[in-house]
Amino acid sequence: MEQYDVICIGGGPAGLAAALSARENGAGRVCILERDVELGGILQQCIHKGFGLHIFGEDLSGPEYAQRFIGEVRNSDIAVKTDTMVLEITPQKQVYILNSRQGYQVLKAKAIVLAMGCRERTRGALAIPGTRPAGVLTAGAAQRLVNIEGSMIGRKIIILGSGDIGLIMARRMSLEGAEVLAVAEIMPFSSGLTRNIVQCLDDFQIPLLLQHTVTDIRGKNRLESVVISQVDEKLQPLPGTGKAYSCDTLLLSVGLLPEIELPFAAGMILDKRSRGPRVSESMETSIPGVFACGNVAHVHDLVDFVTEESRKAGRSAARYLREGSPSGKSIACIAGEGIAYIVPQQIKVQNCMKELELYFRVNTVFDNARIVLKIDDKVFKEVKKRHLAPGEMERIKINSEVLIGAENLKLEIEGK
Q1: Domain limits of the chain?
Q2: Are the beta carbons of 143 and 172 closer than 8 angstroms?
């Protein structure tokens, strides 16, 4: 049984940053496990610019951003196992893996960092009526086919959902010569970044149909058309509003979900709001010595924030090797009115750095609103915001000393 101080599951931006941080902060033997044939994760297929503005102060493509960290890992003594599937982890921090070189193995770790990222919702999760022709793909699968495999997936495109990958693929397919007929979004607001709406839709004159959804898929072998209908305030299709669009490809960009199969099977406590494992201020899960970061903890919008959070997780894993899990009472972080989720979900003040950072998303669009932070139901801090949207993750910082002796912390939104 191979033994490591820290095992990072996932070789994307989260796993790379966590592994490097753990090693830099004193962890001895560190290992990265990656199911793909190369490191870099989803960044390898994100050939557009927009990465690294916060971390490096540069406008990099996904592969360029990933290579900065891959190069550091390759120049270190961190062990890397690619093309390796993790089958199971246990509360005793055993990791069961399988690959074609060494077969079935059990690895033993003193600490584990979960960095498996997220996955896309599929057509099966949406239960869209209609036939099952070729030409219906998730936006991420289409991105890989076009950018890595070099395949042209279609010529007349409809995109369902306005998530960032779907918006980026609208631009990508337009640049490849395809005609993107429309992007349909069931909500009254986009779920993507504002900059992507402007750069990927507005700049290419692609219509965004808010409060619309696909209500029928037609075609025998290849997709021939889809029907798009308006929805009411309860997100139900309105009779008589359906319009048929002739197309050969439907891309689904309808949300991302943290990869929670391993945490769920290991018995970790999951958060119903973020849909990832519940974590503390150090990104430690309910299993001592097991940490979660990046999109497996909660879905991020910028990879720079993934890197920052993952460095914290790696640093915390190295600290766990020296000190174990902190004892003492935890403060509950409560998502109040207007807040979709908040991370971390609990805080042990004695384990905090001087400055504590809270990540959160709102559940609808707000203009001229206030973010209100309450400690034990008393207002401690207010931040005015001209615009808040579900597609953009927000952060707020506080001095952790103000939480000493507190029972709970609550975030809520006041305003329209």
Answers
A1: 1-120+256-325, 122-254, 328-416
A2: yes
Instruction: Respond yes or no on whether the N-terminal peptide bond of residue 288 is cis (omega within 30° of 0).
Output: no
Other CB atoms within a 10 A radius of the CB of residue 124 amount to 7
Give long-range contacts, CB 8 A cutoff, 24+ apart: 123-131: 123/252, 125/254, 126/252, 126/254, 128/214, 128/215, 128/216, 128/217, 129/215, 129/216, 129/217, 130/216, 130/217, 130/218, 130/226, 131/217, 131/218, 131/219, 131/220
Asked if residue 208 lies in contact with residue 197, where contact means CB atoms within 8 angstroms, the answer is: yes
Topology of domain 328-416, per CATH?
A: Immunoglobulin-like (2.60.40)
Contact (Cβ atoms closer than 8 angstroms) between residue 54 and residue 302: yes
Output the pLDDT for position 353: 77
Query: Which of the residues in the chain have pLDDT under 70?
Result: 416
Check if CATH label 3.40.50.2300 holds for domain 1-120+256-325. no
**Same fold for the domain at 1-120+256-325 and the one at 122-254?**
yes
| 304-330 confidence digits (pLDDT tens) | 999 999 999 999 999 999 999 888 789
What are the pLDDT digits (tens) for 266-284? 999 999 999 999 999 999 9
Question: DSSP letters along 114-142, please?
Answer: E---EEE--HHHHT--B---BTEEEHHHH
The structure tokens listed for 193 are 């970044």
Can you tell me the distance from the alpha carbon of 404 to that of 208, in angstroms, rounded to the nearest whole number?
48
Residue 416 has a pLDDT of 66
Answering whether pTM is above 0.90, one says yes
Instruction: Tell me the CATH architecture of domain 122-254.
Output: 3-Layer(bba) Sandwich (3.50)
Token pair of 93, please? Answer: 């921090």
Beta bridge partners of 4: 109
Token pair recorded at residue 203: 């700049």
